[in-house]
Design brief:
five-stranded mixed β-sheet, D-Maltodextrin-Binding Protein, domain 2, alpha/beta, six-stranded mixed β-sheet, 9 helices, cytoplasm, about 35% helix, 11 strands, 2 domains
């Protein structure tokens, strides 16, 4: 019997850039993805994998609906979209932080009801609920840092990786909410149907992630 073709939904952009080397170290042929141009779906010519390139929130939708077997996506998106699929591996890349940020004029203790801009309304609501604060949340699709700069919002809840966007836009961090990293998630049914193939890929990737982490520690 031929091996099943596993459908892997990979988040386009930063996640893709950081995860392709890991997949390659694990022996997965990613040459077609590397030379993708504007294509969005690729069969591996040498292995039983199909890659789907999608935006993070859509990766969770592909997984939930069974249109992908494996998803590679940030934990920020998994939490925000309340993913119910199996998270099997922290890939150790895409490490960032959720922060509350704004201009220097922002006063987090001010008694007025705050307006918060974010791509993550659920995470933002949970954070302010924990603080016992009722805030107005404005959903923004990108370049969230614009919100406090333009007066659209008093502050933002967003992820920061290098801190460059915050710095270059003269914002400052007022609080750290939770860490984020890239995860490998599996559709529940796919795990039942393709257990051997999925665990074999996960084991290979886990070995790469551990080896990279050990290398980092030894270079400290
Ligand atoms: C994310 C995030 C910040 C930026 C932070 O946006 O929303 O804007 O990265 O990264 P840094 O700390 O390394 O500067 P993304 O690049 O995904 O684009 P977007 O703003 O269009 O959503």
């Amino acid at each position: 019997m031929s091996e099943p073709r596993l459908k892997i939904a990979l988040t386009k952009g930063r996640v893709e850039t950081q995860v392709l080397p890991l997949l390659e170290q694990a022996g997965v042929d990613c040459s077609l993805v590397r030379h993708k141009q504007r294509r969005l779906i690729f069969d591996s010519t040498t292995q039983p994998y199909e890659f789907i390139l999608a935006k993070g929130p859509d990766v969770t939708t592909f997984l939930e609906r069974g249109a992908a077997d494996i998803g590679i996506v940030g934990s920020d998106i998994l939490v925000e979209h309340q993913s119910t699929q199996y998270e099997l591996l922290d890939l150790g890349v895409g490490q960032c932080q959720f922060v509350l940020a704004s201009t220097a004029a922002f006063d987090p203790q001010a008694p007025q009801r705050k307006i918060i801009g974010t791509k993550y309304p659920l995470i933002t609501k949970r954070y302010f609920d924990r603080l016992g604060q009722d805030v107005e949340i404005i959903k923004i699709e990108g370049s969230v840092e614009l919100a406090p700069l333009t007066g659209l919002a008093d502050a933002i809840v967003d992820i920061t990786e290098t801190g460059t966007t915050i710095r270059e836009n003269h914002l400052q961090i007022y609080d750290y909410l939770q860490p984020v990293s890239t995860r490998l998630v599996v559709n529940r049914l796919a795990l039942k149907q393709h257990q051997t193939a999925i665990f074999s890929l996960v084991d290979q990737l886990a070995a790469v992630v551990n080896a990279n982490a050990e290398k980092e520690v030894s270079q400290l």
